[in-house]
Amino acid sequence: MTQAEHLRVEVVDSVLRVRIDRPEKRNPLSRAVLGELGRVFREYATDASLRAAVVTGAGDKSFAAGGDLKEFSAFRSDEDADALFGHANDALAAIRRFPVPVVAALNGMAIGGGAELAVACDFRVAAAHATIGFVQGRLNISTGFGGGTDLVQLVGPRMALSLLIGAQVFDAADAKRIGLVDEVTGDSEPLDDCVERFLAPMRAQAPQVLRAFKAIASSGRQGLPRVEREHEERAAFVRTWTHPDHWAAAERVLARMARGTA
User: Could you tell me the maximum CA-CA distance found in the chain, to the nearest angstrom?
Assistant: First the structure.
């Protein structure tokens, strides 16, 4: 287990699990927490055994309560604000670029910067009591972790603008309805069980194919020119086409065709 002061980090059954561990303060995203998140995801990006990653918060009240306002209130100048954005965005970029899918397990509220952390992940699975909201406008600021760009990519410019202007907090069911959340726990279903159910297709996919799909998605998310995205897709196809797993699957299909059972 990687040591981090504000995070609990472990790998269980090929899944990297990262838990923000400041429940007494509702898991605020301080500079230290953001720095640890970036470091952990950069470190584990080289672990070829991973199938997925899950980010969540300790307790059942808060996924992440947003930026640590007590700490951030000392940052008053243009230079301070620019440095804060860079530090936070660098941390979330490590999540966006992680080579396998990253799931945000929303165990409670994801507010402000916490919502930005959630949409930096590839997917969001929420407990029924969880909430999410881009409430930055209530503090007369815009998104500060790069989450505005993520939100536009996730729900489109019109909906993103509406959500940012409205500064509303949505419950899990409404968040799923508008596309902020992918899955919500069923009646009395533990969040961990819902997350495991959501991870099942990733566990079933061949590792190199899963990573190829993530690379294709990441190239689009980064806004790369089409020619560069096609280059990534082409390289992924070559890697997976020539892999023994592909030919083993192809031979099974060919054998069924020969028997007339395909």
Answer: 73
